[in-house]
Design goal:
The chain has 469 residues and is α/β, with parallel strands linked by helices. Helix content is 33%, strand content 25%. It has 14 helices and 22 strands. The strands form five sheets. Strands 1, 2, 3, 4, 5, 6 and 17 form a seven-stranded mixed beta sheet that branches. A five-stranded parallel beta sheet has the order 8-15-9-10-11. α3 packs antiparallel against α4 (82-106). The longest helix is centred in the first third of the chain and has 25 residues, at 82-106. It binds nicotinamide-adenine-dinucleotide (NAD). Residues 181-187, 189, 204-207, 212, 239-240, 273-276, 322-323, 352-355 line the site of nicotinamide-adenine-dinucleotide. It comes from Oleoguttula mirabilis.
Length: 469
């Protein structure tokens, strides 16, 4: 293969980090070129988007089954058509993937479909999806190869019986018994989907709380109670010792995390959701002398540069939370560093959302983190059961909680468990970004009747008193 002319920029990876960087590069007039298979990466193809389709539609199904009589709606024979539910998911994914291809064309991004590996510091060799090879030279190169599910030692992922999130969005029938290893975001979101569709779901979590790192303990307890009422079972402080997937029924030996009684769980499907790890294998990092840290992350400086300054890294394969919107911010910032020498991502104001029902969302620090840092803080909260809109919607589980500096009232963290928490957290993120105080929020008019009034009243409860509680 003969290398074509040198490009301003070659981006390896068409996930959220890579495709956003490519579009931004095109807008800035760079000649960008992008590689790997389907555009959209994990998020669009097997992550955020398909899971949200299933979360939305499984919630509708569950609601029609269990939550209509009290609303004055009598329904007849309700049946699940899993095949069609999956088709609806695929339609959403396909539409959005094509949208990115369109944006590439619009922004003059050349799209090479294939698997890339470094031949030398400026040359990337590509095994093309449609057969054959090519190579491309880049003055600058961005690595945005993302992450993959961390496997559980001793269990073989076949995406049917032992699954990761990828299998969990594509099961062909509703399992009778599903055991989820890991009570983080993936375990709870995908566990919710299959629980709503009729599976008996047990979540085994090593720590004393669900929700993974970052979720406030009070929020975690609240959502656990609600998910429990919906039928999910939890085994906290429990570790999975080993698994046996040799027969049709998978067996898992579990034990109290601090040692103690052992028992064996049986499941027809086991979801492994114990975290994700950077995906850089096969990239030929050895050929150019780039190393990864003990977690497999590519090491970079504050401008995303590796020790080879023309090679930068963004998204899941480097530091920071493995979140699509964090990767997107970096996709824009990295191009700004390249073209203008400055870029900006505020890592203290990246929101987290768990799309269960109710949703959980937070931004900034939680109580445990503030205590550990020795920060003096005050808190105020407001329950959705006292919010007129949530009550009227008969959807009033959860609360909004603010954490603010005890002296200055500057907002340090916002934690929400409740309906539409994922949308509402945008206001908290903006407040944090602008350095707002809870009084700034409390003195801002919020339309009535909306769920957002709970946000305002929680702020009022932090510097003074709420009106409706
Ligand atoms: P996670 O880190 O959120 O949670 C993993 C959980 O598994 C932790 O609570 C951990 O204590 C537990 N665990 C680890 N090893 C265990 C073991 N041997 N036995 C029992 N429990 C064990 O990871 P995840 O849920 O797999 O998600 C992976 C990544 O993808 C995360 O960074 C997550 O934020 C991201 N993600 C985000 C969203 C979202 O933003 N809505 C959705 C899906 C995934």
């Amino acid at each position: 293969a003969t290398p074509s002319e040198e490009k301003d920029l070659v981006i390896i990876g068409g996930g959220v980090a890579g495709y956003v960087a490519a579009i931004k590069a095109g807008q800035e007039g760079l000649k960008a070129c992008q590689k790997r298979g389907a555009l959209g990466g994990t998020c669009l193809n097997v992550g955020c988007i398909p899971s949200k389709s299933l979360l939305n539609n499984s919630h509708l199904y569950h609601q029609i089954l269990h939550d209509t009589k009290n609303r004055g709606i009598d329904v007849g024979d309700v049946k699940l058509n899993l095949e069609n539910m999956m088709k609806a998911k695929e339609t959403s994914v396909n539409g959005l993937t094509k949208g990115i291809e369109f944006l590439f064309k619009k922004n003059n991004v050349e799209y090479i479909k294939g698997t890339a590996a470094f031949a030398d510091e400026h040359t990337v060799a590509v095994n093309l999806v449609d057969g054959g090879e090519t190579s491309v030279r880049g003055k600058n190169i961005i690595i945005a190869t993302g992450s993959e599910a961390t496997p559980f030692p001793g269990l073989t992922i076949d995406e049917e019986k032992v699954i990761t999130s990828t299998g969990a969005i594509a099961l062909k029938k509703v399992p009778k018994k599903m055991v989820v290893i890991g009570g983080g975001i993936i375990g709870l979101e995908m566990g919710s989907v299959w629980s709503r569709l009729g599976a008996e779901v047990t979540v085994v979590e090593f720590l004393g709380q669900i929700g993974g790192p970052g979720m406030d303990a009070e929020v975690s307890k609240n959502i656990q109670k609600t998910l429990g009422k919906q039928g999910m079972k939890f085994m906290l402080n429990t570790k999975v010792l080993k698994g046996d997937d040799s027969a049709e029924i998978v067996k898992l030996d579990v034990e109290a995390a601090k040692g103690g009684k052992q028992q064996t769980l049986e499941a027809d499907v086991v979801l492994v959701a114990i975290g994700r790890r950077p995906y850089t294998s096969g990239l030929g990092l050895d050929n150019i002398g780039l190393e990864t840290d003990n977690k497999g992350r590519l090491v970079i400086d504050s401008e995303y540069r590796t020790k080879l300054p023309h090679i930068r890294v963004i998204g899941d394969c480097t530091f920071g939370p493995m979140l699509a919107h964090k990767a997107e911010e970096e996709g824009v910032a990295v191009i700004e560093f390249l073209t203008k020498n400055y870029g900006h991502v505020n890592y203290n104001a990246i929101p987290s959302v768990m799309y269960t029902h109710p949703e959980v969302a937070w931004v900034g620090q939680n109580e445990a983190e503030l205590k550990e840092a020795g920060v003096k803080y005050k808190s105020g909260s407001f329950p959705f059961s006292a919010n007129s809109r949530a009550k009227t919607n008969q959807d009033a589980d959860g609360f909004v909680k603010f954490l603010a500096d005890a002296e200055t009232d500057r907002i340090l963290g916002v934690h929400i468990v409740g309906p539409n928490a994922g949308e509402m957290i945008a206001e908290g993120t903006l407040a944090l970004e602008y350095g707002a105080s809870t009084e700034d929020i409390g003195r801002t008019s919020h339309a009535h009747p909306t769920l957002a009034e709970a946000f305002k009243e929680a702020a009022m409860a932090t510097y003074g008193k709420a009106i409706h509680y």
